Automatic annotation (TrEMBL):
Residues 455-904 form the TonB-dependent receptor-like beta-barrel domain. Belongs to the TonB-dependent receptor family. PANTHER family: PLUG DOMAIN-CONTAINING PROTEIN (PTHR40980), TONB-DEPENDENT RECEPTOR-LIKE BETA-BARREL DOMAIN-CONTAINING PROTEIN (PTHR40980:SF3). The keyword Transport does not apply. This is TonB-dependent receptor.
Length: 937
């Protein structure tokens, strides 16, 4: 791990170097394009100094930032396709203010911008909307980065940008063929995944070819990567609050003891493909026609196995070694479970993510007028089929001992101090060859065995589909006027039709033949053929202490019965199991969005050496939404209007110093699974729970201020600082209702006493409710726009190349950036994944023959909301650094060999509850090593 002192010292070195260096003119670069324009061809000039590698990538990205009128940070073609990163998400985390979410499985890699997670980030392709196969945000980790020529992270947007990016916009650029040089680059690589102990080959190609001089050109880029990775996890899934007794008790003392310990492993295999293409045709100097497209598929097959041990009422528990955790009381780290609940859990998950987008653009530019017409289609789909198999040993009061004991020490936040010693009988967790009762539709997921010994065999699963598609038509017109700093007036109109949908079904064992079950489904020797766990850091732990189940063998042994498809609201899945549709989780959402914008563009000299650039405008959008739930078929319709003003200004002094200021309004519409149109009811002893639909949920509105200063002290170098402030209103959160007159719920009058809502009159049973006596608790909840929060902070960047120094020191250079984010609200809710501190550092040394790079990323701790029973309750994530190293050797100007190492110091991801000593999860991703070769024709 790189120390903070080393980072501070390096930053100081950059600053001192910047002050000593002579200012130089920055080379020209491709100007940033706005959505309704086509980039002009690049004019070729005189002699050129060719700069490649890491330095080239950083300088190209810096030129994009410098020339933009919006607040933009970028990755260039060199940085996207040639800098060593495992996937696009890993590359994006080098951008100031961008954080990657590593808590998700499958390396999906959603990103946060300035603290706000993926659901607040809009993703575009060449300035047009890009659908996501996942409603929580685009999965950047699922895409091979070579498909793109540049990536812009836009943090302050103009009026001509589509709405949706409250946090910001990630614009994936596929390149302009006529503006690029002819080239063909082929890359092959092979990664060794240390924890998976296996290889993952890959390949990529990028072709740009001019067919007719200055008239017709094509670009094709894409790649393939084999998936073969793994993560291991030690999880304390639950704690009990106790006064020190062996069994859980209610106590006001903040004394916690572990209740459940899990050992998890995820193994992913499969393939990832990404492909983009563009054709650019310019029959006349004023007319350009452009066709483009993008397709990606990410298809991981996930095998998960976990072994869980839990202390229950019929168990005995002994704890020792309490740790004083200051304001969090005490936490026991060492605990012994005797006669615990034991579960073997093995799962197969088949995920398929696809994203596609196609567009056609016609642009006219005669020097005075610009006219653009765009047609665009995009679609994202996800299908997920899962099968879960459990063997469960339940301790029963008064029954004989089940023979299991576990002595565990959680390590108090240090995995090297974690110990796990399991005593188990020389029998199976559950005898799968005993006679089981036949499963019924009334209890489709659980098949009870012999109740006297508390054994169960359980199986369940899901069949999920979600996705969205969108059609876009857009027309823009602009007029150059050159009246002082006022350079142009632009206006545009657009129409968007989008559909989001979700389907959900649960697996049932109904109709299966359990007589074929066999104890051969257990494996006591390895984890999918691997004999280690967590790098062997758990001391004497043996994989035989953690049996798993052979899911593929169980598919054959269960022998599903035929002719089940005729059952109502059910169907037979691909593995022969019966699925029951879940209407409450199945719905369609359609949106029509239309409107327009008007804006002015500024660019002119206010005084000698003083230049003003920027834009100002306003955007209007009208949204009509129609939602149909399978649970409540009538369509629920809702409409709303939004006006979104924006001002982006850059004041430039002597081509070196830029002051930036922006004031913008942005918004985020609710996603399809953020609201439900049906009402849910449930009953328990003396209580009623009602969940109301959220069909009138409005967008979240953010008012944003950005201020920045950038000093381009020399070519390819900058020192910059910026401040941002976002105030988000109409944020959706749950509210509790208790109308005194009872409203229209049929309970009669209600009273709120000490925060509890109760009935005041008795109510007889009917088709909707059972008997409700006086004093029945009534909990009525609704998701509504009611909260607001503020996100503010600052970014600091130092980027310097040291080519003015004498050899060999002239090959050094690098970039460092730091982002600080503060979340404030007067409400009680929290937003996941907001880290207060983020640090990125890239240090390199390059010569014409070889180059080496060290890339460091540090992210401070953050909050994670509960993900269900598998992950347990809400938790916090410890700060995590990561160090990556890479090197390249240029055999010639065409052939380059590369070597990379990721997560060199083998950092874990650690989650905890309240205090780091109260650990909830240790997760290891392992190291990855890659060798590659790149040849350019």
């Amino acid at each position: 791990m790189i120390s903070k002192q080393a980072l501070y010292a390096t930053t100081a070195l950059f600053c001192l170097t910047a002050g000593a260096a002579h200012a130089q003119e920055s080379p020209a670069s491709e100007p940033a394009r706005t959505p309704g324009t086509v980039a002009p061809p690049v004019e070729e000039g005189g002699a050129e100094i060719v700069v490649t590698g890491v330095r080239r990538s950083l300088e190209d990205a810096l030129n994009t930032k410098r020339n933009a009128t919006e607040v933009v940070d970028s990755l260039s073609s060199e940085g996207v396709g040639k800098l060593p990163d495992l996937n696009l998400a890993e590359a994006l985390q080098r951008v100031p203010g961008v954080q990657i979410n590593r808590s998700a499985l499958r390396r999906l890699g959603s990103v946060s911008i300035r603290g706000l997670p993926g659901g607040f980030v809009a993703t575009q392709l060449n300035g047009q909307p890009l659908s996501s196969p996942n409603v929580t945000g685009f999965n950047f980790g699922a895409v091979r980065s070579e498909a793109f020529s540049r990536i812009d992270v836009i943090k302050a947007q103009g009026a001509d940008r589509y709405s949706g990016g409250v946090a910001g916009v990630v614009d994936l650029r596929t390149g302009d063929p006529l503006s690029s040089r002819d080239s063909l680059t082929i890359t092959v690589d092979n990664s060794y995944e240390e924890l998976a102990d296996g290889f993952a080959p890959g390949a990529a190609v990028a072709l740009n070819q001019e067919i007719l001089d200055d008239t017709l050109a094509v670009r094709i880029a894409g790649g393939w990567k084999r998936l073969n990775f793994r993560d291991d996890e030690v999880q304390i899934n639950a704690y009990d609050r106790t006064a020190g007794a062996a069994t859980p008790t209610d106590s006001s003392d903040d004394v916690l003891v572990p209740r459940q310990v899990r050992l998890n492993t995820n193994i992913a295999t499969g393939d990832a493909y990404s492909l983009s293409g563009a054709v650019e045709y310019r029959p006349e100097p004023e007319l350009t026609i452009r066709l483009g497209g993008f397709y990606s598929m990410y298809a991981p097959d996930i095998y998960n196995t976990n072994f869980a041990v839990e202390s229950q009422a019929a168990s005995s528990r002994t704890q020792s070694n309490p740790i004083d955790t200051d304001d969090f009381g005490r936490t026991f780290t060492s605990v012994r479970f005797d006669d615990p609940w034991v579960r073997v859990d093995s799962r197969e998950l088949e995920d398929r993510f696809t994203t596609q987008a196609y567009n056609a653009e016609v642009a006219w530019d005669d020097g005075d007028w610009t006219v653009n017409a765009i047609g665009h289609f995009t679609r994202g789909d996800r299908s997920r089929e899962t099968r879960f198999f459990y063997a469960v040993q339940n301790p029963l009061a008064g029954a004989a001992s089940n023979g299991y004991s576990l002595l565990v020490d959680t390590g108090g936040g240090n995995i090297r101090d974690f110990t796990y010693d399991l005593i188990q009988p020389r029998t199976f967790v559950v005898d799968l060859q005993q006679p089981f009762s036949a499963p019924t539709l009334a209890s489709p997921r659980s098949v009870n065995g012999l109740a006297s010994v508390g054994q169960q065999f359980q199986a369940e699963g899901t069949d999920e589909e979600e996705g969205e598609k969108e059609y876009v038509a857009r027309f823009d017109v602009g007029r150059r006027i050159e009246w002082g700093p006022l350079q142009a007036i632009k206006a545009g109109t657009f129409y968007r039709w989008a559909k989001q949908q979700q389907r959900f079904a649960n697996t049932t064992l109904f109709g299966t033949n359990l007589a074929g079950l066999s104890n051969s489904a257990y494996d006591f020797s390895s984890i999918r053929g691997k004999t280690d766990f967590y790098y062997g850091q758990l001391g004497s732990f043996d994989p035989a202490d953690r049996p798993e189940m052979d899911t593929k063998l169980l598919d054959r042994l269960l022998a599903p019965a035929p002719n089940l498809a005729a059952l109502p609201n059910s169907y037979v899945g691909p593995y022969g199991y019966l699925y029951q549709r879940m209407p409450s989780l199945s719905f369609d959402n359609r949106q029509e969005i239309y409107g327009g914008y008007g804006m002015v563009e500024l660019d002119g000299d206010l005084a000698p050496l003083l230049r003003l650039r920027g834009n100002a405008g306003v955007r209007y959008e009208r949204t009509s939404r129609s939602t149909i739930s399978a649970q409540q078929p009538p369509a629920i319709n809702f409409s709303f209007d939004n006006w979104l003003p924006s001002v982006n200004l850059a004041l430039e002094y002597d081509d070196q110093l830029i002051l930036r200021g922006s004031y913008t309004h942005t918004m985020r519409r609710p996603e399809v699974d953020s609201f439900a149109v049906g009402n849910g009811r449930s009953f328990a002893s003396n209580s009623v729970q009602i969940s109301l639909g959220a069909n009138e949920l409005r967008p979240f509105i953010s008012k944003n201020i950005d201020l920045g200063i950038e000093w381009y002290n020399r070519s390819g170098s900058v020192l910059s600082a910026s401040y941002f402030h976002k105030k988000v209103t109409d944020y959706a959160a749950a509210q509790v209702l208790c109308p005194e007159d009872g409203g229209s719920f049929g309970f009669g009058p209600l009273s709120n006493v000490s925060g509890l809502c109760r009935t005041t009159t008795p109510r007889g049973a009917d088709g909707l409710f059972p008997d409700l006596p006086v004093g029945t608790l009534v909990a009525i909840s609704q998701i509504a726009n009611q909260d607001e929060f503020t996100l503010k902070g600052f970014e600091v960047t130092a980027q310097q190349n040291l080519d003015f120094l004498p050899a060999p020191w002239d090959g050094f250079g690098g970039q460092m950036n730091y982002t600080n984010v503060q979340f404030e609200t007067e409400s009680t809710f929290r937003i996941s994944e907001i880290s207060r501190h983020t640090v990125n550092a890239i240090l390199y040394y390059e010569t014409p023959r070889f180059g080496v790079r060290a890339a460091y990323n540090y992210r401070s701790g953050y909050f994670l909301a509960s993900g269900g029973t598998f992950t347990g309750a809400d938790r916090l994530v410890e700060p995590r650094p990561q160090l990556d190293l890479s090197g390249q050797f240029n055999v010639s100007d065409k052939l380059t060999f590369t070597a990379e190492a990721f997560n060199v110091t083998n950092e874990d991801l650690i989650e905890y509850e309240g205090t780091s000593e109260r650990v909830r999860s240790y997760r290891s991703f392992g190291r990855t090593y890659t060798l590659g070769a790149r040849y350019s024709f």
